[in-house]
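Lab notebook page, bench 4
Experiment: in silico fold of construct C2
Operator: M.H.
Input chain length: 325 residues
Purpose: comparison with the prior construct
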Amino acid sequence: MTTTIKALLHASLLSFCAATGLAAQAQTYPSKPVTVIVPFPPGAGVDIVTRLVMAKLATTLNQPFVIENRSGAGGNVGAAEAARAAPDGYTLLATPSSIAVSQTLYKNLPFSLEKDFRAVGMMASVPFILAVNPGVPAKSVADLVELAKAKPDTLTFASTGNGSSPHLTAEMFKMDAKISLRHVPYRGSGPAMNDLMSGQVDMMFANALSVLPQIQSGRLRALAITSTAANPSVPGVPTMQQAGVAGFESETWFALLAPADTPAPVVERLNAELNRVMKMPDVQQTLAAQAATARSGTPAEVDAYIKKETARFAEIIKVSGTHIE
């Protein structure tokens, strides 16, 4: 047997052993608790969705999926920690669309969305609701625009941080309505909601998961929803387009990611179980009651979607002039 043939046989054997090992790893995965990093505080939209979904995954995969809230820097603190984790499937990142925004918004990120992560799957998407505190006299979007034009740069809007999806959605509104508003960023939806309800700020494009209870209790007033169609969870509330802002649409999405070198068989097993969970009627009904929509897709489809969204947000950031040093 020649040296070349021996080398080829050796390489083939190594490849076979590696493939067999990965397949065996996927069959036994998970064999211990899985940590899921949520880069925003408890009560944020991504936290609400992740807790619902991970409880189901824990049942179907017979291992705990432990949520760890690691907030800070618009979600970048938790994302950076997840990027540094061992790529073995035992540390995952549950992230909202703000991670795609960060790629353009921040100049010196400690991670790259494209290079350091691979998609496991999509969990849900949810529109924003333009909500005002009851002390604001506007009863409609048209009233709000009229008020803003009468008092330029006086009305304030809250967000979950500079460059967050609620922030960029408000910037889109400012551009489309040709009005001037003052931005007040917060570290997450909880503090923003508290100040909105107390009247410290006037308005917010809050994701429906976070704001719906306050609207239903009457503590906040909903003027419009940013989806393309009206939502039964907020009866009588028009879409932004119905309210007179032509072509206006915005939503946030929640994806499950893994460190880039996580073995494909592990990612595929997680994806299959995640998609199964997202198609469960009780999960879909729970999300729908909160104006959210269950999503699914293959890792490749979700990776492609996130890449497209990153480019879309880059254009919005460029046009709005938003930046963070």
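Observations: The two ends are 63 Å apart (CA to CA). The chain has two domains: 32-126+252-320, 127-225.
Next step: discuss at group meeting.
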